[in-house]
Amino acid sequence: MLVAALFTTACQSQVTTTLDLVVAAADAAVTALQATDQLPPGSAALLNTYLSDVTAAVDYATAELASADTPAVMASKITAEFAAIAVPQLPPGVAAAVGVTIQAVANAVAKFLSSIQATAAALTATPDGARAFFASGKLKLTRGDRAALPKIRAKNAAVKAKLAALKK
User: Are 37 and 141 a contacting pair, CB within 8 Å?
Assistant: First the structure.
């Protein structure tokens, strides 16, 4: 029982860790856009939309992770939110650094979604689901995760502010 509880805690911590990586990748992408003198026509709007959508989905994920939903519902809702975001096809002429950082954002999102789905699947596959670990049947955030969510929200807000300044 202790090993299973530790596994669940570790997986859950992986969820907030990978969500933080999404924010870091988005921040790097915005920084790369700031450093780029020129973008092909239409590229700036395409990239701004993508990064705005990613940061909005991060806000959604932090709120959902703090909700009372079951792990399966959390994973489903968060996955749906991120699935609605299409990674832009960059036209020729976009600086390589921008392309690399946009791909890093997409990779970080994929890793985050994989970690949250794995956590939900592990709890669902356990006999009696989350109730085997928690009397309420709900996924409980660790102390570290509870502390991480506001920090992730704050970092994400800073990325959104940088992105808003870039649009001007």
Answer: no
